[in-house]
Amino acid sequence: MRLSDPLLRKTAEKITAGERLDFEDAMVLYRSSDLNGVGLLAHRERLRRHGLKAFFIRNQHLNYSNVCRNRCVFCAYAKNEGDPKAYTLSLEEVRDQLTCRASESIREIHMVGGLNPRLDFQYFENLLLLIREVRPEAVIKAFTAVELDYLSGITGYSIEKVVLRLKEAGLAMMPGGGAEVLNDRIHKALFPKKITSERWLEIIETVHDQGIPTNATMLYGHLETHEERVEHLLRLRDLQDRTGGFSAFIPLAFHSANTPLAHLPPTSGVDDLRTIAVSRLLLDNFDHIKAYWVMLGEKLAQTALYFGADDMDGTIVEERITHTAGATSPKGMSREALMYLIESAGMVPVERDSFYNPISGESHGNLI
Length: 368
Ligand code: V47
Ligand code: SF4
Fold this sequence. Notes:
The chain has a single domain (about 5-350), classed as Alpha-Beta Barrel (TIM Barrel). It is built from 15 helices and ten strands. Helix content is about 40%, strand content about 10%. It is an alpha/beta fold. The structure holds ligand V47 and iron/sulfur cluster. Iron/sulfur cluster binds near residues 70, 71, 72 and 78. This is Aminodeoxyfutalosine synthase. Keywords: 4Fe-4S, Iron, Iron-sulfur, Menaquinone biosynthesis, Metal-binding, S-adenosyl-L-methionine, Transferase.
């Protein structure tokens, strides 16, 4: 492989030899002038793992309440109780949101919300039971370590008991949010009321030990340095070495509108692609890297399939968190539109369930 940046060559040799990359390698990938070279290394790794397959899922997002006592600085979605834009869905409203899509084969319900002090444990259990009743064929991927810590606090239950109860009510997987950047400086500056990095890691380890897989995310493009991003990735990789419970990693590009950080520019396409590529190369024990089209936009998400990403996430139906912060992508996408994005990028769409099993034997084989 021809690399125009000589500084990249040593790291490229390690990748070719199948050696694990370290902090310095990741910084070389971040600093290199040869973005295409970094992308090519990540693409080669992506082809080795998945060929030209690009996964997607028919899913629906549900956000039960935007009332949140944490009020993270980067979050435009959360509101205080009494705010005219504050809402909390009743179980009947949740039922309506689910049944209005009854004709579609939705495979996953992705559900997160704010820490609303008026919601008790019963509400969360009832949400899961209701989804299981209305959508018995869908996997429920819900809550983050942040909600689990909250539920443990209001009930006095251990995290193990919270997970067990939610599992009994239908929880099968957890999304990757809540970690933001696993770093004390950023925690203090941007989300001081949220659980610490150590607590997030400890809770996720417990969740994995209880047999529930989760994703992991990283919110990037605000105050964090490249070094802090790399530390975040390495902390996730360490935990994955111990538990093997992470399914996919999803870099989340920060959107600043309607937040106190509105003066910050959007992430650049170059940074988005490089971050996908560094994630693919550093997280050697993660099977999947997601290009979340909602935050990247459809065209950059397509391009990311050539920088290490193998998954486009899903149909979503209605996204709220990023759109409140100024996202200009659509709020949802049809299965056909997602497949078009993948096919017109020269990849093979594979519809999957939450655990990356192809739907109805639709595996297209490894084409490389
Ligand atoms: O934890 C909040 C992020 C996350 C903003 O696991 C913002 O499959 C950008 O975790 N700009 C929730 N991001 C979303 C999330 C997620 C999304 C899609 C798929 C999966 C998955 C997980 O959204 C939060 C936070 O990091 N977020 N505000 C913002 N202004
Ligand atoms: Fe609340 Fe989550 Fe928004 Fe933070 S990111 S304010 S915890 S809803």
